[in-house]
Write a structure and sequence with these properties.
The structure is a single chain. With 320 residues, the chain is an alpha/beta fold. It folds into two domains: 136 residues, Response regulator (Rossmann fold, 3-Layer(aba) Sandwich); 145 residues, 3-Layer(aba) Sandwich (Rossmann fold), CATH 3.40.50. Helix content is 42%, strand content 18%. It has 13 helices and twelve strands. A seven-stranded mixed beta sheet has the order 7-6-8-9-10-11-12, with helices on both faces. Strands 2-1-3-4-5 form a five-stranded parallel beta sheet, sandwiched between helices. Helix 3 crosses helix 4 and helix 5 runs parallel beside helix 6. The longest helix has 25 residues. The radius of gyration is 24 Å and the shape is elongated. 42% of the residues are buried. About 2% of the residues have low confidence.
Length: 320
């Protein structure tokens, strides 16, 4: 065999080995579909990606993300979820109850991991220990926190008698909030918000009714319009209690709720287990264990309110 022919055979062998390695790497590339109700500005998504990195995943090497954004239009969710199914993703990450519901409507086989949402109230899981079906993840159990939020609001404003409760069609826990309000001798002014266009007139109604404080109930609509809601609360000099720190970081007065960053980070472990062969029906739904009470003193000064020391000392974080 001459040298030229030998070199040619060796080159061909090397090429075949490289192609084989590339094929193996491609086969190991996990496809993770991600469905957002909002747009590309997702402040907590990096916590999920960090959670996967901690578990040995590297974007582009052994995992790839396929993103779909509804841009606030809930009617688009089903079509976007169907796109992910057609793209043959290995798992779908849903960032709220409505995105998970849309995903489950189009697939009963692809695993769905929810980063935050009430899986029991919405029927996405049969139970915490054995969710059944193809949906599992983290549940907010938001209704359980509404009473605590009202207690803190009453401590902050001892003379509080009337509170405006803002809720959207997908808000949960109104009954629990009403029970807590009755125990605290608070009169609740219930105000349903169906779209962002309702917000300005809703706050005008709050002012005309002489409500003394704002109590916001968690929903995707409220979260998507958090900055606008905070701006209106400050404009109307209205003390507000919000469900997540996103609102206080944007200028709201106070928030008490689960650590959203921790929920996203924990969701990564579900994706890891599913990619390694676990079935979502066998993965117990987790309830949050970390809660955050945040106070924004800038907002307090802006509306002319002094936070009582006994309330301020309990804050996990104070924005000055």
């Amino acid at each position: 065999m001459n040298r030229k022919k030998l070199i040619g055979m060796l080159a061909a062998a090397v090429l075949m080995i490289c192609q084989s390695v590339e094929a193996q790497q491609s086969a190991k590339l996990a496809r993770v579909g991600v469905l957002f109700i909002g747009g590309k500005d997702q402040p907590y998504w990096e916590f999920f990606k960090q959670g996967l990195r901690d578990l040995g995943y590297s974007e582009g090497k052994n995992v790839v993300f396929l993103y779909r954004y509804a841009e606030g239009n809930e009617k688009r969710l089903s079509a976007l979820a169907a796109e992910l199914v057609r793209d043959k993703v290995d798992v779908i990450v849903a960032t709220a109850s409505n995105t998970a519901t849309a995903a489950r409507e189009v697939t009963k086989t692809i695993p769905i991991v929810v980063t935050s949402g009430n899986l029991l109230e919405t029927g996405l899981a049969k139970g915490l220990a054995n969710p059944g079906g193809n949906v599992t993840g983290l549940t907010l159990m938001a209704s359980d926190l509404n009473g605590k939020r009202l207690e803190i609001l009453k401590e902050t404003l001892p003379q509080l008698k009337r509170v405006a409760a803002l809720w959207a069609p997908r808000s949960s826990g109104y009954a629990e909030a009403k029970t807590a309000a009755n125990a605290l001798s608070l009169r609740v002014h219930s105000l349903q918000v169906r779209s962002a266009e309702d917000l300005a007139s809703t706050f005008d109604e709050i002012t005309n009714a002489r409500d003394q404080a704002l109590f916001l109930m968690l929903s995707p609509l409220m979260t998507l319009n958090s900055q606008r809601i905070v701006e209106l609360a400050l404009k109307h000099r209205l003390p507000g209690m919000f469900p997540t720190k996103q609102f206080t970081e944007e200028g709201g007065l106070m928030s008490y709720g689960t650590s959203t960053a921790e929920l996203y980070r924990r969701a990564a472990s579900y994706v890891d287990k599913i990619l390694k062969g676990a079935k979502p029906a066998d993965l117990p739904v987790e309830q949050p264990t970390k809660f955050e009470f945040v106070v924004n003193l800038k907002a307090a000064r802006q509306i002319g309110l002094t936070i009582p020391p006994n309330v301020l000392v309990r804050a996990d974080r104070v924005i000055r």
